[in-house]
Each structure stands twice: as structure tokens, then as C-alpha cells.
């Protein structure tokens, strides 16, 4: 473990390069509300599969998918997509075979969602849990211990930022940290930055002291991260042209990001 100051916020995920006749992006957005006792109160996961066509011949194609069939997710294809082909064989093609995917602009082909308490109706687990213990140290100061735990060791979380309100503009004293920290005096927050959390560093901790008398001042904690590992492991198996059954080259990028992820 080592401490240090980080410059600036982590960069946003780079836009996927368009290098194939058909370019797909499977994106998920995760919203979660956790209690400070560790319970998951609410969660909402929404996913979208989009395609950008760069060649007119490739735009008139049929896309064969593999999706999660466990019953955790609800799927909704675009109204212009042949619903019967999707329901019957997980194939995506336009209802009108004479019309292809639009050229050089993204088109949403499929949406999916899962909601409810993780471990409850949806049967899913949050990727990361946060345990925060503020304790009075005396002399008007609080000692704060925070620990993260990777609850999904099969996922790799990038650009993790855990932001803790301090209730004061005073500079905290860092005792120990796995990763780096950034203090924002104007906002009265301390951000804990970890570039990558995976199975090799499933837990990590941050310890600091700060002038404060209220243990509730350190909530709500907000968490942000990205990942290329999705909940709904959507795969493009095969693409062929509607006329002629010719194979079409394609690329698929997967990305998950947090919309709102709080511990309160």
C-alpha cells in the first residue's frame, strides 16, 4: 500500500474505433443504492446493443446473437426489427429486407434490463461493496476506515473512484491507502482512486483522520467505475447478408459504466 496525490479525474472510456463493415457496441448502465450496513436496497441495469454500418452491402444483414437465457433479463428489439426472428432464433434483421441499417450512424437494435434488489428478484450481485467506519478519535477529530470488496471476481473494474464527503474543507490526514487520493477543499470531498480492481486485489482500504464530529457527514458515498465485462454477456455469433448469405466482418465492443452508485 502507498499513498499519493492524483492529478485530475480519470479519463472517460475511449470511443470504439469503427474499423469493420459492421461495428457493434454492447453497453450497460448500472444504478445501485446500498445501505451503509452493506445491504443492497435498489438496483437497475439497462443495456443497449447498437450497430454502425460503414458499407451499404453489409447494412442489409442478419445478425445471430447469443444472449443470457437465464430469465434475469427482459429483452426489447427495435420496432423496425423483425420481432419474430428475434424471439424464435435470437436473430436481428430489419422487418423490411430491402432496407438496411443506416450508414455511418449508430442504430439501437436491442435493449435489455434487470431491476430489483441484487440477490433478490434479479438474481444478480453488485460488483463492488463499500464498508465505511467513522469513529471518534477525540479532540474534535474522526478516524475513518473504508474498505472495498470485489463481489464479482469475474469482473475487472477500471478507473474506480470512491468519493467521500468530509463535512469540512479541512485537509484530511491519510494514514494508509491502496491506490491514490484527491482532496477537493471546495467540494469538501476526498476521492479514492484505484486504476484497476480485479481478482488480484479483491479488497483494499483507505484510512484517514479529519476534523469532524459528525459520523453521518461521510455519507452518501458515491462510486464510479467502468468495465468491459457485462452482466448480460451479449455475443454476436454470426452475420450474413440477407441476400446471398455472405459472411460479413464485424467488430464488437463491450462497456459497462455506473450512472449512480451510492452508499447512504
UniProtKB/TrEMBL annotation:
<dbReference type="GO" id="GO:0006888">
    <property type="term" value="P:endoplasmic reticulum to Golgi vesicle-mediated transport"/>
</dbReference>
<keyword id="KW-0931">ER-Golgi transport</keyword>
<dbReference type="InterPro" id="IPR027059">
    <property type="entry name" value="Coatomer_dsu"/>
</dbReference>
<dbReference type="InterPro" id="IPR028565">
    <property type="entry name" value="MHD"/>
</dbReference>
<protein>
    <recommendedName>
        <fullName>Coatomer subunit delta</fullName>
    </recommendedName>
</protein>
<comment type="similarity">
    <text>Belongs to the adaptor complexes medium subunit family. Delta-COP subfamily.</text>
</comment>
<keyword id="KW-0968">Cytoplasmic vesicle</keyword>
<dbReference type="GO" id="GO:0030126">
    <property type="term" value="C:COPI vesicle coat"/>
</dbReference>
<dbReference type="GO" id="GO:0051645">
    <property type="term" value="P:Golgi localization"/>
</dbReference>
<keyword id="KW-0963">Cytoplasm</keyword>
<dbReference type="GO" id="GO:0000139">
    <property type="term" value="C:Golgi membrane"/>
</dbReference>
<comment type="function">
    <text>The coatomer is a cytosolic protein complex that binds to dilysine motifs and reversibly associates with Golgi non-clathrin-coated vesicles, which further mediate biosynthetic protein transport from the ER, via the Golgi up to the trans Golgi network. Coatomer complex is required for budding from Golgi membranes, and is essential for the retrograde Golgi-to-ER transport of dilysine-tagged proteins.</text>
</comment>
<feature type="domain" description="MHD">
    <location>
        <begin position="19"/>
        <end position="264"/>
    </location>
</feature>
<keyword id="KW-0472">Membrane</keyword>
<keyword id="KW-0813">Transport</keyword>
<dbReference type="Pfam" id="PF00928">
    <property type="entry name" value="Adap_comp_sub"/>
</dbReference>
<dbReference type="GO" id="GO:0006890">
    <property type="term" value="P:retrograde vesicle-mediated transport, Golgi to endoplasmic reticulum"/>
</dbReference>
<dbReference type="InterPro" id="IPR036168">
    <property type="entry name" value="AP2_Mu_C_sf"/>
</dbReference>
<dbReference type="GO" id="GO:0015031">
    <property type="term" value="P:protein transport"/>
</dbReference>
<keyword id="KW-0333">Golgi apparatus</keyword>
<keyword id="KW-0653">Protein transport</keyword>
<comment type="subunit">
    <text>Oligomeric complex that consists of at least the alpha, beta, beta', gamma, delta, epsilon and zeta subunits.</text>
</comment>
Amino acid at each position: 500500500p502507498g499513498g499519493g496525490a492524483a492529478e485530475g479525474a480519470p479519463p472517460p472510456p475511449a470511443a470504439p474505433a469503427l474499423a469493420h463493415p459492421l461495428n457493434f457496441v454492447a453497453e450497460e448502465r448500472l444504478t445501485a443504492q446500498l445501505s451503509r450496513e452493506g445491504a443492497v436496497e435498489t438496483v437497475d441495469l439497462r443495456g443497449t446493443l447498437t450497430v454502425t454500418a460503414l458499407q451499404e452491402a453489409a447494412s442489409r444483414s442478419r445478425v445471430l446473437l447469443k444472449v443470457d437465457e437465464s430469465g434475469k433479463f427482459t429483452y426489447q428489439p427495435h420496432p423496425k426489427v423483425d420481432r419474430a426472428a428475434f424471439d424464435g432464433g435470437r436473430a436481428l434483421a430489419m422487418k423490411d429486407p430491402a432496407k438496411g441499417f443506416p450508414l455511418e450512424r449508430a442504430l439501437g437494435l436491442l435493449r435489455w434490463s434487470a431491476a430489483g434488489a441484487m440477490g433478490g428478484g434479479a438474481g444478480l450481485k453488485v460488483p463492488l461493496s463499500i464498508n465505511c467506519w467513522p469513529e471518534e478519535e477525540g479532540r474534535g477529530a474522526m478516524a475513518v476506515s473504508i474498505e472495498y470488496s470485489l463481489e464479482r471476481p469475474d469482473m475487472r473494474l477500471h478507473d474506480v473512484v470512491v468519493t467521500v464527503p468530509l463535512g469540512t474543507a479541512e485537509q484530511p490526514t491519510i494514514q494508509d491507502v491502496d491506490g491514490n487520493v484527491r482532496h477537493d477543499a471546495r467540494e469538501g470531498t476526498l476521492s479514492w482512486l484505484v486504476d484497476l480492481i480485479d481478482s488480484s486485489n479483491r479488497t483494499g482500504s483507505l484510512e484517514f483522520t479529519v476534523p469532524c464530529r459528525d459520523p453521518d457527514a461521510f455519507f452518501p458515498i458515491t462510486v464510479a467505475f467502468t468495465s468491459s465485462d457485462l452482466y448480460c454477456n451479449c455475443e454476436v455469433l454470426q452475420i450474413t447478408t440477407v441476400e446471398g448469405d455472405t459472411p460479413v466482418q464485424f467488430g464488437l465492443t463491450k462497456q459497462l459504466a455506473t450512472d449512480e452508485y451510492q452508499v447512504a
